[in-house]
Amino acid sequence: MKRALVTGITGQDGSYLTELLLAKGYEVHGLIRRSSSLNTGRIDHMYQDPHEAGARLFLHYGDLTDGSRLVTLLDSIQPDEVYNLGAQSHVRVSFDEPEYTGDTTGMGTVRLLEAIRAIGLDTRFYQASSSEMFGASAPPQNEETPFYPRSPYGAAKVYSYWITRNYREAYGLFASNGILFNHESPRRGDTFVTRKITRAVARIAAGQQNELYLGNLDAVRDWGYAPEYVDAMWRMLQADEPDDFVVATNTAHTVRDFLEHAFGCVDLDWQQYVRFDERYLRPTEVDALIGDYSKAQDKLGWTPSVLTPRLAAIMVDADMKSLEVAGTRYVDAVVTE
Ligand code: NAP
Ligand code: GDD
What we know:
The chain is an alpha/beta fold. The chain has helices at about 10-25, 45, 50-55, 65-75, 90-95, 100-120, 150-170, 195-205, 225-240, 255-265, 295-300, 310-325, and strands at about 5, 25-30, 55-60, 80-85, 125-130, 175-180, 185, 210-215, 220, 225, 245, 255, 275.
């Protein structure tokens, strides 16, 4: 039985990846941070599963800022595959917390790689690299496009990308970068723009909210569906050789387009509800990300099937259902980013 360690297991991608790995028969170990309130909402359904799959999921306290803990943990687990998904992943927040973002999103990666090297583990390593690394480089972006990060988050991811390549070249580690473009789902964090919009659509349709405050509506993004993107991660670690791959849909939509699609699901005109708030602007913006995923298609046999209009419908539908189930759950929620 293969054994995997997933950092960031409590996040959007960590939860879908864990479902995928358990379904493939893996034993899955997840790194979780201790917090005063529960942060395992996205994985509880697996952890509490009394059947075989739940019995193959193990959670361990730890943190990417704590190198000695990573050594102890890796040594005790001896994983065949390590997926490094843990990060301070919010671009806007990275301008408020640049040092912490560098520590977690950048240095966290070298702590993990160095732990693998020091123990002498024969493991395959996946690094969650990001299209944010391309930043100001014009689209379409592929594996050859120069990096030009526009945020502390993007800069930290560039460091992680290069240190992953360096450990591959210097020590022969099977280490691959997945350069993933934006991917979303009903499990997307509440303060990323797609989920902020689809939650608001559900609440507005239910008469619980009248306005939605947003920043730059002109930004172009290439939005895909998270469950399909975690499959690409897994494929990268099953390849014959380690390499770096863009994962995207090669389609372009503005935030305004996403509003059209999401509000269109409930037959509402978004212009009646959306207001501008400069707090949601960034000191430097990434204007356009559109990914050319031909290499992943050719070498991994990976293609996306859910594109932005369907993605918006999936997310609105899930948020409408969640509101029905939860009753007044979202009434007092405050979205601050
Ligand atoms: P997410 O939902 O924000 O999840 C981030 C995860 O990292 C959470 O489990 C979080 O734990 C954990 N984490 C944060 N700080 C940590 C620390 N110091 N030590 C250990 N764990 C820590 O992000 P996601 O959307 O699933 O993305 C997964 C990864 O892919 C991230 O590295 C992200 O930067 C990258 N990425 C995402 C996208 C995208 O569009 N989603 C695109 C490209 C790359 P808590 O639950 O305790 O906060
Ligand atoms: N979050 C947010 N909130 N974004 C807004 C808002 C708002 O109220 N209004 C407009 N936007 C714009 C942002 O300025 C940005 O141009 C776009 O919507 C998308 O923002 P996010 O959803 O926060 O995602 P991101 O593109 O900055 O970063 C995500 O994708 C990266 C991959 O390209 C994150 O998941 C990163 O972790 C990931 O690496």
